[in-house]
Design brief:
The chain is an alpha+beta fold. The protein contains 19 helices and 24 strands. A 5-stranded antiparallel β-sheet has the order 2-1-5-4-3.
Length: 654
């Protein structure tokens, strides 16, 4: 039997030369060849096939049958030459028993003719399938790893074609876009971008598509653009987008890959930080302006008090002087609001009739809300008293009124109603529990647009605002909440779109004495404010110092004046033993008040001191920790308030 006839090689040729050529070809072939007879015996095998089995070629052709080298036996009833177990296949992968013991996976392509006249029923070509299987397995693992990386990446990834249609997206992008894989596939990327930013994104993608044809396309840095995505869930997110065009030579057909990083929280924090910086700067400015105004108002009120000593109620000038003094006091209230805004106000809770406070405030509220809005103030009879800081309570009402004004752009009605409220059982409101007790209730109701249900739970959050950029700080309602809770009260809100909003303040009832003893008593109380002794008055503002010195001299004190802290310290060194009281401003050039107090106490530890300032007492109290018998008098102050504080400070300790 010749090789040419066995495998159809050397057709048209005869003789030994043809057989020799075919044999050389099969012997040197890089793939295996074998042939089987009707009994499944090998009648031919080439060296490559023998190497696949790890057996000598002579052993295979010398009597082995196919089922002798198969890893799994041929099922009963199957032709002994069929390695596929009677499945009728002409090709497939079959496991053979390697002489080394490890099964060899071999891919076979065969022809089978049971009625062949020469008795050779199977002619087959074989090749080692293990490398291909390993490569396929490695490729599958690589694809699986990439798919896991792609799907589980913490940033959104999307592949778009030159027309901007999404071809591939991962879970992170689908979350950002508020959709799923099916909802994103085939849609244009711009459909997920807010309308006003679509043109910029389209232009960017087109420029990238053109750039992808250049030689250095892969070396260019990704293009960066911030866009706002709005998904089918209606939620808007700010994302930083990095886009890179893929080189067309890589078979990507001009596609662009985009990475999306959600920076909504970062942007919110940046805005909060910028807002807080702005608020701090404005607060410092307000505090500085208030300090200067307090000096001016102290002088105005003080000299009015000196004039009133010489002009009695029947005098023609008395009414004019009182008018000046009343307007100065109104200006002092405005300055107090500036200090409250800058958080530099000294807190002075006192027993208060809310009806009186609202009556005084209503004039300011009418100017704040404008002529298009009607203000109604409804007072309850026999309203209980509360103990709060009047300036803070006014700030609460002002903030609520301003919010109501903004909600009534086309006009409306702002109603402020007071009443007494008694809670007999604990009441749950949101995350807070209102305990049983007696409260003064203040309702601030408007007829504005109302608050949507999805944001009503966030309105008291700092920096949260539904107003346009530049139209609000987002601190108004958070300030209201903080002030009311600080006084032991509660804030409730009832609102719905189209029916306005009602904010309810519940302030604890004050059950103590209706009047508290206070050094800031009015002249009507006819207290004896005269005194005796030597007072060192230290004040860099000439008008305030002049008024203070005259006021104290009129009350019987001997006054020594000093314009600076350095001059005052020299006086203390010289006559400190004869000084009964030192009244000093806190904020002064060169040596400030706290330094003067510290140095003076080193020389005379028992020296009695009164600090006067337009800033908050808390600002310098910490710097004087450990020093007792130091009193504070906030500016602006009247003649009687100064005299009362001096007498209080010089009173021997109990």
């Amino acid at each position: 039997m010749v090789f040419g006839k066995l495998f159809g090689l050397g057709a048209g040729k005869t003789g030994a030369s043809s057989d020799k050529g075919a044999g050389a070809f099969l012997a040197a072939a890089p793939v295996g060849f074998y042939a089987l007879d009707t009994g499944g015996r090998f009648v031919f095998a080439n060296p490559a096939f023998a190497e696949m089995l790890g057996r000598p070629l002579a052993e295979i052709v010398g009597g082995l049958r196919l089922h002798d080298v198969l890893a799994e036996p041929i099922p009963a009833g199957t032709a002994p030459y069929d390695p596929f177990g009677g499945l009728g296949l002409s090709k497939g992968d079959v496991r053979f028993r390697h002489l080394g013991g490890v099964p060899a996976l071999i891919s076979i392509v065969q022809t089978c003719d049971p009625a062949a006249p020469d008795g050779v029923v199977v002619r087959a070509m074989a090749r080692d399938a293990e490398p291909e299987r390993e490569m396929a397995s490695a490729l599958a693992r690589s694809e699986l790893g990439f798919r896991r990386f792609f799907e589980n990446a913490p940033v959104g990834i999307a592949l778009v074609d030159p027309d901007g249609r999404l071809t591939e997206t991962n879970r992170a992008f689908q979350r950002l876009a508020g959709t799923d894989r099916e909802g994103a596939a085939g849609r244009n990327l711009t459909m997920f971008v807010v309308p006003e930013e679509r043109a910029e994104l389209i232009g960017k993608l087109r420029r990238l598509a053109v750039a992808s044809t250049g030689k250095d396309a892969n070396e260019r840095a990704p293009e960066h653009i911030n866009v706002r995505l709005v998904g089918s869930d209606g939620k808007e997110r700010i994302v930083a987008t990095f886009a890179r065009a893929l080189d067309e030579s890589a078979g990507t057909d001009g596609a662009t890959i985009l990475h999306f990083l959600d920076i909504s929280e970062q942007r919110r924090l940046e805005q909060q930080f910028a807002q807080s910086q702005k608020m701090q700067a404005v607060g410092q400015l307000a505090g500085g302006v208030a300090h200067d105004f307090n000096n001016l108002l102290t002088a105005m009120i003080g000299f009015c008090d000196l004039l009133l000593l010489r002009h009695q109620p029947g005098d023609a000038s008395f009414a004019d002087i009182m008018q000046i003094r009343q307007n100065a006091n109104r200006a002092a209230n405005l300055v107090r609001q500036l200090l409250a805004f800058s958080r530099q106000q000294t807190l002075q809770p006192k027993v208060l009739d809310v009806t009186d406070a609202l009556t005084e405030l209503s004039h300011l509220l009418r100017r704040l809300i404008g002529a298009a809005i009607e203000l109604k103030v409804v007072h309850a009879r026999d309203l209980w008293l509360v103990r709060v800081d009047q300036g803070q309570l006014e700030q609460v009402i002002i903030n609520l009124a301003v919010n109501a004004r903004d909600a009534m752009g086309n006009g409306g009605t702002l109603t402020i109603r007071t009443s007494n409220a008694t809670k007999t059982v604990p009441e749950r409101y949101g995350d807070e529990e209102i305990p049983p007790g007696e409260y003064v209730r203040v309702d601030v109701a408007d007829t504005g647009t109302g608050i949507p249900p999805d944001i009503i739970g966030r309105i008291f959050e700092p920096f949260f605002s539904t107003k346009a950029i530049g139209s609000g700080t987002g601190l108004g309602l958070s300030t209201v909440y903080g002030i009311v809770r600080q006084t032991g009260g509660f804030v409730q809100v009832d609102s719905a779109p189209g029916r306005g909003s009602t904010f309810t303040l519940l302030l604890p009832r004050w059950t103590g004495p209706a009047q508290e003893e206070n050094a800031d008593s009015s002249p009507a109380r006819r207290r004896d404010l005269t005194g005796a002794g030597t007072v060192l008055l230290v004040e860099d503002e000439d008008a305030v110092r002049l008024f203070g010195a005259r006021a104290l001299r009129n009350k019987g004190y001997k006054v020594v004046e000093a314009k600076t802290g350095d001059a005052a310290l020299d006086i203390v060194r010289e006559i400190g033993a004869t000084i009964d009281l030192m009244i000093t401003d806190v904020v002064m050039p060169q040596m400030d008040g706290t330094t003067l107090i510290r140095e003076s106490r080193k020389l005379f530890p028992a020296l009695k001191i009164v600090c006067i300032s337009g800033y908050a007492e808390e600002q310098f109290r910490q710097t004087l920790a450990g020093f007792d018998n130091v009193h504070f008098l906030p500016k602006p102050f009247s003649l009687d308030q100064l005299a009362a504080k001096a007498k209080e400070a010089m009173r021997p300790p109990a």
